[in-house]
Structures are given as structure tokens and as C-alpha cells.
Amino acid sequence: MEDDYDMDDTADDMGEENYERGMRDSDSEDEEHGQSNDKIPDTSSADARKGKDIQGIPWEKLAITRDKYRQTRLDQYKNYENMPNSGEAAAKECKPTAKGGMYYEFRRNTRSVKSTILHFQLRNLVWATSKHDVYLMSHFSVLHWSALSGLDTELMNVQGHVAPREKHPGSLLEGFSGTQVSTLSVKDNLLVAGGFQGELICKVSTAGIGPYEI
Predict the structure, then answer these.
(1) Hey, where are the domains in the chain?
(2) Does the pLDDT at position 145 exceed 50?
(3) CA distance 97 to 103
(4) What is the largest CA-CA distance in the chain?
(5) Between 20 and 30 A from 38 (CA), which of 56, 92, 110, 178?
């Protein structure tokens, strides 16, 4: 989570207490471990097989073990619920899991690209359109990150002035600036971003990930 946005109005609308909690939960674990995303190297499947933590957390240097930390979090952390007892209801429908079971195959964890989410209740700000293509919000930029090349490409920046290329009934011809993106969708060469003030930005591409045109 970053504070690059003007968050005052949004925080009031969504609840001061929940907003503050979202900010606390953002990068708190990195701060606890005394590391920044820029300084943590990628973790490969080969590293994981040698015993390295897949999140890059140096447990051997900490005063608490991973198991103890996890148990403490389970005991003390309380999920926010819009609907009372929704967690218990969902748990009844979940299949029980066994520790040590194979539920996924780890390949790589990278910290070279960092998503920034304005509020902890927001969803749909990270999209994967394939096994190797990820789209995400990073500050005011919509980025595409390739797991194959390890490179990120900025597809759209909404910090400055954004205006439509074509005239359509109901569109703001003067455009808008400093859009606070609250939702994102990418599919079939169409990228759509929605803002807190009702902004809707659509970009299309005829070449996969870009270039996009508004």
C-alpha cells in the first residue's frame, strides 16, 4: 500500500477505522522483517527446494519461527466482515485440507513489481490473463508484467490528464486527472479501469499487451 493518492475523501466514504486497518496491513510484514521489496531477491523453485522461504522471509534471522508466527496470526488476527458470521458460513462449505498436502506447484516469487491497492476491501486490481501475463495497479500506473521475461511495461498512467480520443454522447470531452483506480479488468485485448468518482477508462489493443489506445 502506498500513500501517493489523496485518500481523505475515500477514507471517509469507506470508514475511517477500516481504511486505517488497510494501511496497517499493507506492507507491515516486510517492515516487521526489516526488509523492503526492492532488497528482497526473487525466490525460484530451486531455492524453495533448498529450504528457502517462498516469500523470501529470513526466518533463520528472526526471533520467531514460521509456525509460531502463523499460529499467533491465526489466534490474534480478526478478518473484517461486512456480513456477520459470513466467515463461519463459508468455512462450512470449504473442503478440509491436510498440512503438507500438494495444492499447487511453486515456480517463482518476485518482488520486482509491486501492486499498490488504495483500500484493503478493494478487489480486481490484479489480473492474470495467462500463466505468464499479469496486469496490476502500481501507484497511478497500470502495468503488464511478464513471468517469462521478468519485465514490466506501463500501459496506462492516470496521474495526469486523461481524455477520450473519440467523441461519444455523455463523455467528458475535457477528460479528468488524478484518477483513483478502484477496479480493473483485462480481457480480449480490452483494458478497463474504473475510478472512485465514476470515471471509466477503456483502452484497446490489437497487439496483445499494447500499444493501447483510449
Answers:
(1) 1-9+112-214
(2) yes
(3) 9
(4) 62
(5) 178
